[in-house]
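ARCHIVE CARD
Drawer: 12
Card no.: 0347
Subject: one protein chain, sequence and derived structure
Cross-reference: see card 0346
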Amino acid sequence: MKVKIVKLKKEGNRFVETADTLLFDEIFGIRAGKPDSTLYEDTTKAKKGLKITSSNLLLFPLSPAQNQSKFVIRFHSGNTDTLAVKYQRRNVLLSEICGFATYFDSLADIKSKMLYKEIYKEIDSVRIETSSVNQNGQVTHVKLYFY
């Protein structure tokens, strides 16, 4: 799943995307019954945080064994937010040589029916851009909005 980080700023009476950076210490996936898997981490000695801009796409792997995946984002401020998505899995035969691939359909934010301010500390909102995750490499699936 490709995730785009979007930083917003207020211009007049509306919000627009900016090229500002956000600082993260770590992003990892939660796997039921298995150790957490680090996806992105600040490994520098200075620990100044990972700088991620709106032009970066982050790759979050979805579980082919379950109908949901969870990702924890640890911010440089010390706060953490958990992004949880659900989906339906579908095995597709690519070819006899390549075999099967798992496609993920009906992608949705599990927390979308709640008030974001009550469940997220840093994330303002989550938007599902494309509800199918497949072999199309040019698509952003999820946008995470920050102020």
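Annotation on reverse: Residues 2-146 form one domain. The radius of gyration is 16 Å.
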